[in-house]
Amino acid sequence: MQEGKALVAKHFPEFNAQQLDLLEVYVKVLLETNKAINLISRKNEDEVWVNHILHSLSIVKVMKFLPGQQVLDFGTGGGLPGIPLAIAFPNTHFLLVDSIGKKVNAVKNMAEHLGLGNVKTKHIRVEEIEMKFDFAVSRAVTALPTIAGWLKGKLKKGHSAKLSNGLIYIKGGDFNEELKQINRAHKMWHMTEWFEDEFFETKKVVWIDLT
Fold this sequence. Notes:
This protein is α/β, with parallel strands linked by helices.
């Protein structure tokens, strides 16, 4: 576990000791919970710090969420990327949702165990949510045109220091055709800009204006 904390500290020197400790506890609880409920692939549990923690924290490289902002993590699964981001931004409010009830319950328990007062969870399909958010985040759950439909009317206009409000999405491979279909302003970053592990070779972070 010490290696994992050192890995995060190397790439995110702005994280303090408490944040690194919380990430370590989260990894322990996630792996323990994963024995009973399949939250992440059991094949790559040994790679959890790279494949799940750094992967989720890639969003921190492109966006510094502000205190009081509301962020939706949809299809959160095992709390990814929402819980690592909530640890990174303790004054930002995160709602973690999933359509699978047992996953939501697991994430709720993990967030409570970690004492994350800025995390709420809800068992709901994203298209049924009636709240409005500054940003939505997620790791590849489906095609971007489908997501654009789900998020219609759920993101409010606004501008932060780095990015205007919208969707910040983690996805691998080539999805240029999907971006053409939705035809909205966007920016893309390759994770190899920040991380050297070969896992990140095809991984990208994309911001899309879906307000």
